[in-house]
Protein 1
Amino acid sequence: MLFLQYKVIPKNMVKEATSLKIDKDVFERVKTQAKKENRTMANFIETVLIKYLEEQEEKEKPAE
């Protein structure tokens, strides 16, 4: 099971609508995982992307 920790996104944050073309298998896996976590697919995808971007930004920080 996948557990994600993420920062709470303010409800007044402006959202952009988009569409994606993804592999059918990936789509089904995302749909299944989102359902397991009682999330919408959009919320699940956004959460995963936020976590990924935060990890990348952390890696890019200069060493102190």
Protein 2
Amino acid sequence: MKNKYYARTTRSAVKKLRGTTDKEAATEQYSEVVSMIDKLAKNNVIHKNKASNLKSKLAKHVNSL
């Protein structure tokens, strides 16, 4: 049950970051979201490659702002 909560919270944070248009706010959020994704991968809630792909796409989004 706890894993489901953390996964859902992280997905919400990812959606919020993708919707951000302000570069500074996105940069701050990015580090928090990456930390959340890494924790999920460490506990095998998501696969490490999925975590890497998510981080890469989010970094691309933040850099494009």
Protein 3
Amino acid sequence: MLQYLKNSATKSVIELSLAKDGLKAFHADIIGLNTTWTNLQTINLEHNSIGAEGATILSRNTTWTNLQNLNLGSNSIGAEGVLSVSNNITWATIQTLDLGCNLIDDKGAASLSENTTWTNLQTLILNYNKISDEGATELSRNTTWTNLETLNLGGKKIHDEGAASLKKNQKWLKDIKIDYLCIR
């Protein structure tokens, strides 16, 4: 299947779902090097093992200009991988980004908060990472994500200080999910 993907010249690929397929950074390399999927809108690679290296490789792709949904949840990408993802300037149409369960810490949250490309981002999933009040405060400083409606930070690391920063600075947010609590 991956050999086919590597050599596929079709532009008609709209969705790529390879969740729970045991993918490693090597496989992300094959996927990330594709330059023909100009219509790609959804990538689901959740529950694999691409790590920071795989996230970095995928982030270098400049072909996926129509990407709307990216699910890299449970891939252990950490702060290094999220830095690469947040630096991608091609994915301006991204609407949903799932980075849950990825060992992302406050440094990674700070990297995300510096993104100025994702003006269409509506849902950001960061649950079950290592983000604390400090990281939540960093995320609250982003002024680009004015379409962000849902931010999921569940995972027992964020308390009143972080939640208050988000609510105060991200007025357009409709839902902030922290541990099973919803702030509306």
